Amino acid sequence: MKSNKAFRFLVFIFFNFLALWVGVIIMQNGPRTDWYLQLNKAPWTPANWVFGTVWSTIMILFSFYMTKLSFRYEFLDKKLVGLYGFQWILNVGWNYTFFNKQLTLVGLVVITLLWLLIGYFTTKHIKRLQFYTLLIIPYLVWMTIATSLNAYIVFNN
Known about the structure:
By secondary structure, the protein is mainly alpha-helical. Helix content is 76%, strand content 0%.
């Protein structure tokens, strides 16, 4: 049983960090481009170094969360895998739409969908996971902050 937990955790950690890596690749140095640097950004925008630290922490916690959640369902449950995959696509897709294509309004739609999906994961499984729900709370909080940052850019540029 422990090896099965370790295997599932490694699968989730791999795919979560793959999302971060793909996101960094497709945003093409977006936070350092003239386009982004010249945007009117929210006063609460964190320093650039915060983003990598926060995302790494979130993905580790989310891997533990998904590992625990995966044992509450049949192995490779279609709905759970589908929702996780959709979360993955939205996460990576935001980098592409916002930084690569500079479509801030489309980015806001994408990040809002991601925020709603993480909110769904949080509220839908709170009874199943109880204390372990704390592992996804940083993701939900960060998505709230990130959504507000994106919205500020849409409405103030």
